């Protein structure tokens, strides 16, 4: 059974998107194929321990106080072979969410219960441009459940996102949130209200874990 490079496993509240506020056990994997300018988990590349599936499950069980929701995040979890972990979690009847940066597709996404994919805006220095991969992920979300999520740091980011949505047909919920420390929620709301993005399922939200100062 394959080992995974793990940064940390902990219990907290989901701070973003449609699952905001949901008590969740986080499994943060190490390593990412991107290096976004405003990434807030760069430490995951350095804080690394190799664990087998049984060891990971044991740590998850220690966090489980009646909580059946597990979020696999990173880093970029799809750069590792997470399918054995996903299968093991399902056998234990966990509800599995995954966060991915939108640059990698694997069929294991179709085994998860909720998929969150980033639309990388220009300020990240890794703007989303591989539409073939992104569309595969969006199709997986339609088959399962989930959301697209974009972080907005400035007007250029907002205009990029607006054009991205206009030029492509994604029947997937869209979460728009301000980049912490770069753009206020008020400024983002003003951008949206002055120039709404033409998408039928939009939420303009904050990252509440930043407000609550929790992991």
Automatic annotation (TrEMBL):
Task: Return the protein name.
Answer: 7-carboxy-7-deazaguanine synthase
Name of the top EC class for this enzyme: lyase
Q: Which residues bind S-adenosyl-L-methionine?
A: 38-40, 75
Organism, scientific name: Candidatus Methanofastidiosum methylothiophilum
Q: Known CDD domains for this protein?
A: Radical_SAM
Query: What InterPro entries is this protein classified in?
Result: 7-CO-7-deazaguanine_synth-like, Aldolase_TIM, rSAM, rSAM_sf
Biological role stated in the UniProt entry:
Catalyzes the complex heterocyclic radical-mediated conversion of 6-carboxy-5,6,7,8-tetrahydropterin (CPH4) to 7-carboxy-7-deazaguanine (CDG), a step common to the biosynthetic pathways of all 7-deazapurine-containing compounds.
Which pathway is this protein engaged in?
Purine metabolism; 7-cyano-7-deazaguanine biosynthesis
């Amino acid at each position: 059974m394959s080992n995974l490079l793990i940064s940390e496993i902990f219990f907290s509240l989901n701070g973003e998107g449609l699952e905001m506020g949901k008590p969740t056990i986080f499994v943060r994997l190490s390593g990412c194929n991107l290096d976004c300018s405003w990434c807030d988990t760069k430490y995951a590349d350095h804080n690394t321990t190799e664990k087998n599936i049984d060891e990971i499950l044991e740590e998850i069980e220690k966090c489980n106080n009646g909580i059946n929701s597990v979020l696999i995040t990173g880093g970029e979890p799809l750069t590792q072979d997470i399918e054995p972990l996903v299968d093991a979690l399902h056998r234990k009847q966990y509800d599995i969410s995954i966060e991915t940066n939108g640059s990698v597709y694997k069929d294991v996404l179709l085994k998860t219960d909720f998929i969150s994919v980033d639309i990388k805006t220009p300020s990240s220095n890794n703007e989303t441009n591989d539409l073939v991969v992104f569309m595969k992920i969006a199709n997986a979300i339609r088959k399962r459940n989930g959301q697209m999520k974009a972080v907005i740091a400035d007007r250029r980011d907002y205009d990029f996102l607006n054009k991205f949505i206009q030029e492509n047909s994604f029947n997937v919920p869209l979460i728009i949130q301000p980049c912490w420390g770069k753009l206020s929620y008020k400024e983002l709301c003003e951008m949206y209200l002055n120039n709404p993005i033409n998408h039928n399922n939009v939420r303009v939200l904050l990252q509440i874990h930043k407000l609550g100062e929790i992991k």
